[in-house]
Amino acid sequence: MQPLSVNQYLRQHIRTVPDWPAPGVQFRDITPLLQDPKVFRVLIDAFVHRYMDKALRPDVVAGLDARGFILGAVVAYELNVGFVPIRKKGKLPFTTVEETYELEYGSATVELHTDAVKAGDRVLLIDDLIATGGTMMAGKKLLEKLGATVTEGAAIVDLPELGGSQRLRDAGLPLYTLVDFAGH
Length: 184
Prior knowledge:
about 180 residues; two-stranded antiparallel ribbon; AMP binding; EC 2.4.2.7; Ade_phspho_trans; cytoplasm
């Protein structure tokens, strides 16, 4: 029997919940990846080993509200770099910059503290999943408003059929994802 690749190993621990939050949606639930300590370690190591490379190493990791906080904080800790949260509007206590983006129904706004990054910082932007790409695009714009360079967007899951990963690449953001659910 062939050993599983990291991608295959992680894929088998992602739960698919049919018809949630709406009929016809196949929700990709990453919480089982976090519950098992061995699986969680494999997940985090997949990111850490990539970003330990000098050419890809960030100065700061930025995580998108909310599951990006879980991943981003641990990856930042392991890389010995700082972590900054990009939060939903109204959650940060200090002076912020904000970016509004479109959702399927309506819009949402995310914020970042004005002192979260410095001009010239190389930032890894991380979230659990890329669907339409709106949240990650808004995070990229926020970091760039403060003069940082987003070197890469990272996520566990890519749902390429929703167009987000292509939209982000078209906007000049290299992406690194671990599991692709195209056509599944």
